[in-house]
Amino acid sequence: MSRVKGGPKAMKRRRNILKAAKGYRFGRSTKTKQALEALKHAGKYAFRDRRAKKRTMRGLAIVRINAALRERGFKNYSTFMGAVKKANIELDRKVLSEIASEYPEAFDRLLKIAA
User: The CATH number of the domain where 58 resides is what?
Assistant: First the structure.
């Protein structure tokens, strides 16, 4: 009875790691150990940043709304959001920023309702 050697399986594993690390620079794309390390870090960053992206996009929406308000002579973002809540306008920041940039007339009407 002979022992089982892991040559083909090990080569397949290495090949898959290097395939996943394609486009990385220097040893990270050619050396298995460095490629595996880079892939682990990349996966960690990807997981973290999928959540951070939501925060970033919310911040961007706030900046866009504030810019639209300043153009129209409105004081600031926080007073506008307070007025929106009091007027029972149930639009989130993403939608408000889209309206402000794409449909200025509709945003002006929203301002009149809120103020």
Answer: 1.10.1900.20
CA distance 99 to 65: 9
C-alpha to C-alpha distances, 63 to 27, 29, 81, 101, nearest whole angstrom: 41, 39, 13, 11
Residue 74 zone, left/alpha/beta (φ > 0; ψ -120 to 50; rest): beta
* pTM score above 0.70: yes
What are the pLDDT digits (tens) for 75-108? 889 999 999 999 999 999 999 999 999 999 999 9
For residue 84, the enclosing domain spans 7-114
